[in-house]
Amino acid sequence: MSYLIAVRLTPKASADRIGKTRQLADGSEQLTVYVTAPPDKGKANEAMIRLLAKHLDVAASRLTLVRGQTNRNKLVKVE
Which 3 state secondary structure label does DSSP give 64? Predict the structure, then answer.
């Protein structure tokens, strides 16, 4: 079983943390994630994957960035 998580990533934050879930105009929900890593060469994306994996209590290898490699709005697939 797999599912998708919509994420709004904020790089260069003061601390790595999972923020609140917010409701978008279309009715869908988006999880806010803050990481201290800079948005350089995928470092922020990698930090986000590690943080989400720890939060969801799954291996980081089970998470895949499906959309948003260079955008703050991301779609992550959890296997």
Answer: strand
